[in-house]
Amino acid sequence: MLNIQKRLAPSFYALLSLPSTAMGFALSVQISALSWILSTKYGLAIHEIGLVWAAGPIAGIFGQVIIGLISDNVWFWGGRRRPFILVGGTLAALMLLALPNIGVISSALGRDAILGVAITIALTLDLAINISFNPTRSIIADVTPPGDERTKGYTWMQTISGTFGVAAYAIGAIWGNYALIYFGAVLVLLISVIPPFFIEEPQILQSENTDADTPQQKTSLVQILMAISPLWGYLTYAISGMVCRLMGWTMNSFWAGLCMGLTVASILLIFIMKRSAFGVRFAPLIPFQKILAAHSFTWLGIQTMFVYMFAYVQQKIEGLSDNQMGQVVSISFLLFNAIAAILPATVLQPLALKIGRVKTHLLCLGIMAIGYTGIWLFGHSVNLIYLLMCVVGIGWAATVSLPFAIMSQTIDQSRMGMFMGLFNLSVVLPQLVASLGVGEAVSAAQDKGLIFIICAISLAISAILWLFIKDSQAEVDTKGVTPVGH
Q1: Predominant location of this chain (predicted)?
Q2: What angle, 0 to 180 degrees and rounded to 10, lies between the N-to-C axes of helices 46-53 and 55-71?
Q3: Is 307 helix (H, G, I), strand (E, B) or coil?
Q4: Greater confidence, 312 or 165?
Q5: What DSSP character marks residue 259?
């Protein structure tokens, strides 16, 4: 074990953050370039671009949960998380190289199937990212003690990842998206493959529940389904939406309403019913389920912005060429990520120590909802869009750092990979709903301001749900610090 790991030195936190940074950079490239390429180079419609983006959440549904379950219980290539980081990083770099060559690949196959090839590449890229995303976050919890040090690990992760994300959008804005893609492929390969060899993982993960009542038991399918009960409505809509889209059917509005009702009912059940009503087996899952519910609405709003912001800029800012529109979106996301890179370690971590992580997160989400409302009402000039993207970046800074630390202390540490995978369903299922349902709504709407109305409402609902979530930080602090590596 390196001395910097034994001391939990800042340089170790930086090293520990690099694999996650690689996956974040790959996502930044995808966010900056994918919709732009598909719209300007290949002429795909908004709803078709949404279908391509739906490939990512599908990969996440299977990839993150399965990899999480497997990585908790295997050891090879000198680690538990290391093998998946290496494989995912290599594959992600290759798929980035394929992005600007969708037309070449389609021609080589002898078919005019741009949409099919784009979906395949996007699916493979997202599958690669999802193979690694879960382990890059789980490894932070594996090698840091619960409490402030773990929170520090995740805030460092976001600071470094966010800094590289800013660089990604700067490259796209200055030199163009093609330069960003090729630079990204090299960078992702290097910082995902090299750092894992300098991080020593614990061979045994001991259970360190913050809830003493949590029973030790093997994971069953029933327990997994119960754990994600707040997401049942999202899951039902995602499956039916994909089937309808692939079969060329139109989803019945009654069915969409039924899925919405299931979401509302399952969330109300978790937040309103007494813990004792769920029994000894499932009651310990309630804190985790509440976080899933709140986090899902955060991502429904954020993913809507990621996928469809280009359509808003196209409509609201007149006189832009395709390249200029791409630059406006790139600069917007640059500023968005710059705020997210600066705040976690400099502002959010100190603030969380004073008022708690949940209150800090809640405050940031409220500001984000206000920022989205501002874009809807006033985002009719480039400079105002840039300014308001800085405001919503405050919520993004919290979203990509604090929920991981909050969630990691509500579950059994020996099953961190599995729960991290389930937690990420609160990201990928809303992403799928945004790609399918929101895509149809945005495509049909004459006023693309609908995009940021959806964003604002989703973030407001999320903030309200976080009001009812308990911060476990105080409990952890009273239990002392566990040695690194468990």
Answers
A1: membrane
A2: 10
A3: helix
A4: 312
A5: H
Q: How many Å apart are CA 220 and CA 209, to the nearest integer?
A: 19
Phi, psi of 76 (to 5 degrees): -155, 165
- Tell me the CATH architecture of domain 16-195+218-472: Up-down Bundle (1.20)
Residue-wise pLDDT for 90-120, tens only, equals 999 999 998 888 878 878 876 667 778 887 8
Question: What's the CA gap between 17 and 195, in Å, rounded?
Answer: 9
Q: What would you report as the CA-atom Rg of the chain, rounded to the nearest whole angstrom?
A: 21
Question: Tens digits of per-residue pLDDT, 376-391?
Answer: 999 999 999 999 999 9
**Alpha-carbon distance 251 to 173, whole Å?**
38
Give domain limits for the chain.
Answer: 16-195+218-472
How far is CA 45 from each of CA 37, 40, 104, 146, 304, rounded to the nearest angstrom?
12, 10, 20, 47, 16
Q: CA nearest 293: which of 466, 54, 61? A: 466
Phi-psi sector, 276: left (phi>0), alpha (psi -120 to 50), beta: alpha
383-409: b (≥16 Cβ within 10 Å) or e: eebbbbbebbbbbbbbbbbbbbbbbbb
Nearest-angstrom CA–CA distance, 431 and 433: 5
Q: Which residues pair with 76 in a beta bridge?
A: 79
Q: Within 13 Å of residue 220, how many CA atoms lie on the same side as its CB?
A: 7
pLDDT: which is higher, 412 or 90: 90
* Residues 250/239, Cβ–Cβ less than 8 Å: no
